Amino acid sequence: MRSLKVGDVMWNHIEPVRSGTPLTKVVEVLLRNHVTGLPVVDDKRHVLGFVSEQDCIHAMLVTSYHHEGEPVVEDVMFSDPLTVPPEMAVVDLAQNLGRNKPKIYPVVDGGRLVGIITRAAILAALAKTGYGVSVPRFATED
């Protein structure tokens, strides 16, 4: 299991949110891809931030209440997200997950986004390899 890397189980088919994207488009992307958040990148795929469902919910409520113009992703994103390299061991990342840690990590190689890894992908990788699962032993009567 220690040899299974983040790059082996990351998702690289979901397009990140581009800087300058209006919030309504961000919400569409999150809902269409069934994810709770996505990295925000520039034109060279450098990670600028991370936007979550919760960020969008809060911004939509505030915007609706104050009748302000539509925010863009930079108005609501978290600008210092935790990232992981593709060569990091999945088991090491799993051991670092905590209650207040992100559910999705941008995977960055050479300063550029190459994918995302979710808690669900980590859980699936652990389950598939049988990590932490032991075969029950039953007492036999002699």
TrEMBL record:
SMART domains to which the protein is assigned, alphabetical: CBS
Q: Which Gene3D superfamilies match?
A: CBS-domain
Under the heading Pfam families, the entry gives: CBS
Q: Which InterPro entries does the record cross-reference, listed alphabetically?
A: CBS_bac (IPR044729), CBS_dom (IPR000644), CBS_dom_sf (IPR046342), Diverse_CBS-Domain (IPR051257)
> Does the record's keyword annotation contain Nucleus?
no
Is-annotated flag, keyword Transmembrane? Answer: no
Domain CBS: from-to ranges? 10-68, 77-135
Keywords in alphabetical order, please. CBS domain
Fetch the PROSITE patterns from UniProt. CBS
Q: PANTHER family, per this entry?
A: CBS DOMAIN-CONTAINING PROTEIN CBSX3, MITOCHONDRIAL, REGULATORY PROTEIN
The name of this protein is CBS domain-containing protein
| Organism of this sequence | Marinobacter halodurans
* Taxonomic path: Bacteria, Pseudomonadati, Pseudomonadota, Gammaproteobacteria, Pseudomonadales
